[in-house]
Amino acid sequence: MGEMQELSTFWFVTFGAVKVVAVFTVVMAVVAYMTLAERRVSAFIQDRLGPNRVGPFGLLQPIADGIKNIIKEETMPGTAAKFYFVLGPALAIMPAVVTFAVIPFAAPLPTPVGTVDMIVADVPIGILYILALSSLAVYGIVLSGWASNNKYAFLGGLRASAQMISYEVALGLSVIAVLLLAGNVTLTEMVWKQQQLGLWFVFPLSLAFIFFLISALAETNRLPFDMPEAESELITGYHTEYSAMKFSMFFIAEYAHVVTASALMATLFFGGWDIPFWPGDDMFRHEGAWIRGFDESGAPIPTSPSVLITLLTLAAFSAKTGFFLLLYIWIRWTLPRFRYDQVMHLGWKVLLPAALGYIMLIAGTMLVLDQLGVAYGMLYGLVLTAVSGVTTLAFLFFVDRDRVISGAHRKRPGRARVARPAGGPAGRTTSS
Amino acid sequence: MAISVKVMRRPEAGRTSYMRATLKGMSLTFRHMVRPTKVTLEYPEEQPELSPRWRGTHRMEVHADGRPKCVACGLCPTVCPANCIRLVGGEDDQGNRYPIVYEIDEFRCIFCGMCQEVCPVEAIHVGQHFENAEYGRDRFVYDLDRLMEQDHPTTLLWDPSDPRSE
Known about the structure:
The structure holds two protein chains of two kinds. Chain A is mainly alpha-helical. Chain A has one domain. Helix content of chain A is 59%, strand content 4%. In chain A, the strands form two sheets. Chain A has a three-stranded antiparallel sheet, covered by helices on one side. In chain A, strand 1 and strand 2 form a beta hairpin. In chain A, helix 3 runs antiparallel to helix 5, helix 5 packs antiparallel against helix 6 and helix 8 packs antiparallel against helix 12. Chain A is globular, with a radius of gyration of 24 Å. In chain A, 43% of the residues are buried. Chain B is α+β, with helices and mostly antiparallel strands. Helix content of chain B is 19%, strand content 16%. In chain B, the strands form two sheets. Chain B has a three-stranded antiparallel sheet with strand order 2-3-5. Chain B has a two-stranded antiparallel ribbon with strand order 1-4. The interface between A and B is medium-sized, with 33 and 31 residues.
């Protein structure tokens, strides 16, 4: 039963509306429980308990927080630019909640009226849509930082814009490696290409994944790159003057970005909804029919969507995204914040040239493989994995030394260095 | 005794590590994440174990017939460094002295325990008790009846097995 029944316009619109509501609800619920998970996990990491009073294990805490934020008094600084002050949170949250629309979260679902794609909007520009919208979020941050008429908020906004521009470059360049290998920008097709390769893109493009992970941390303003907030330096940066639900909007926006970035990492590098080691869930629309792959002669192998596969792939996607959400929290509570110049240094002088070089390397390797006539498949992937693996190890070895991000002791040209007593070890000694 | 200060030496150039240090830190936080060391006392459900020398809410000892043991000698208001005890003594027809007014202001009290130490008849005590929250400030002046009602264990000003607190 490889034949495909197209949805009529009525059902397409109906299912579209249902998917919009469902995905929005789920993302918001995940965001709410992400705040709880953040607090609980950070508490465990620090040998505390975290919020455990509201409901069993504190599970109702996000609801209590939401109610509190809605009924709290909204303060408005007297010197703020009122219109932009109100506009800021709205601008911050809108891009955050719409970016999830192009991420496929499960295999297509068969219904009596036709097959429903498990993606809100399967737009042909896919990843470009995400890149375009996610960087819009910084307008909300910059605007609210400026409109607050507060020097700390303003500094936070400035830092956010600088950081967003710097890491958008590295993020885009790391995605280009994926686009080269996938040959398309649609996220549904990227999942399919990973299924065809037999390898998730994290293996043939391991260095791109590291760049993407670092840039995504910076783009979502999470520690160790939370320069715009930087509590110890800027109070809380751009949302210093905000209270109640307007503050909550920034919070929701930040976590929605985290959820989207995690889902994107799972989709781009970890096969999306693909279940590992099982070709049975592979599914793609090919010339009006659902296929699982191609046999030796190049003829398509037909397959048919099933509810079970949809549910299993949804679970796989959730597990992968959940892992990255945990990784975000885990990294946040492990690493200290970078200094601002270190953030800029890492973005422009390390990630940008390294990502450019890596794209050249990947493109060159792919060109050689194509010239040699290696078909897109396991061998193709393994060769790229070997090339990327060596590059990744070299990069990590390079980064591991302090050549990249210097500590305070680093000798800089043109600056006099305090002479140390000869023979003594570096650093101060104590006298008891 | 000198305060011991741990001075972290800055690593020399070329000897620092970012990747390995990051991974090391991640593994440390992961160990705590999966198996947190329990240090928190979940207070309302779990009660702290008070030291026998804990000095908390006061308590007046009573005779078997319900009279306070206090003989209104006036030593405790005299010794009290916070001046929180108000005592008006009286004498009955057999010549026994007794307190007419005995009030302790728990807000002023610094819980030094000197009233207990000085009491010649072991009447006033500080106790092993700290849950004395009230809805109003006026409730914090404990009168004689209130002090006699308290039934928490009294403080051992020294541990008999370790009298010199060594």
